């Protein structure tokens, strides 16, 4: 009989306490994350071009020490076990948050700054679900990371994402297989049921401009928008 010590995961997440605005878009590969990030970048650049502040776009994995290793795994076939890979994503995210020179937290401390993130905390348990990893544990060990002001989940069915990926014709990485996308989709569904307030679901199967309008309709309510700041 295997002996065990039981411990229940409990976590309290802190929503971005800094004056800068932090927005993340989650979704499967092929769901349109990168496209919507670019649309939001254009929105902020055009609307607030006369305001003080800047825009920082983050995409995972980064080109930092952990991110570079992840890219070798995803694109060049470096062999590594699934749990270690997801922990590397978390390490890469931690460095991106806390880096003293270019970190997200440092950038958010300035009023008017906006961070746009292509995936963040929810992606690790969602994609970890492909390998059957403990989703609650993967959420728990990120509980010291600040949450964005808005996290949007682009809801696109896995088979549609796969069709889009095949049309791109720019190579397929480790996760870009239909059965993997289906597992990741189930992982995102679990997270949305587990923590209903974590993400806002957006129908990502509509025209690009309609999706962008939906995102902006939420963002316009934020008191942190550069045009709404009071000094």
What strand line-up does the widest sheet have? 2-3-1-4-5
Kindly state the percentage of residues in helix.
40-55%
Work out the strand percent.
5-15%
Count of beta strands: 5
Average of pLDDT: 91
The main pleated sheet reads as: 5 strands, parallel
Low-confidence stretches are none
Number of helices: 9
Gross morphology? globular
User: Which structural class should the secondary elements be placed in?
Assistant: alpha/beta
For the CA atoms, what is the radius of gyration? 18 Å
N to C succession of SSEs = EHEHHHEHHEHHEH
Word description of this protein:
This protein is an alpha/beta fold. 44% of the residues lie in helices and 11% in strands.
Question: Key features?
Answer:
5-stranded parallel beta sheet; alpha/beta; 44% helix; 231 residues
């Amino acid at each position: 009989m295997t002996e065990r010590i039981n411990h229940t995961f409990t976590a309290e997440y802190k929503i971005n306490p800094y004056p800068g605005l932090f927005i993340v878009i989650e979704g499967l590969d092929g769901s349109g994350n990168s496209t919507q990030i670019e649309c939001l970048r254009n929105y902020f650049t055009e609307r607030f071009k006369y305001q003080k502040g800047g825009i920082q776009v983050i995409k995972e994995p980064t080109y930092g020490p952990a991110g570079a290793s992840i890219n070798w795994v995803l694109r060049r076939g470096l062999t590594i076990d699934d749990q270690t890979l997801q922990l590397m994503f978390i390490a890469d995210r931690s460095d991106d948050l806390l880096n003293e020179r270019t970190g997200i937290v440092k950038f958010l401390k300035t009023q008017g700054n906006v961070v746009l993130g292509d995936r963040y905390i929810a992606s690790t348990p969602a994609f970890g679900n492909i390998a059957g990893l403990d989703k609650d544990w993967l959420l728990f060990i990120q509980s010291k990371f600040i949450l964005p002001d808005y996290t949007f989940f682009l809801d696109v069915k896995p088979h549609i994402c796969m069709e889009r990926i095949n049309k791109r014709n720019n190579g397929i990485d480790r996760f870009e297989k239909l059965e993997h996308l289906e597992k990741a989709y189930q992982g995102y569904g679990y997270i949305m049921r587990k923590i209903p307030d974590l993400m806002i679901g957006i129908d990502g199967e509509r025209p690009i401009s309609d999706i962008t309008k939906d995102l902006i309709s939420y963002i316009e309510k934020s008191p942190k928008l550069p045009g709404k700041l009071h000094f």
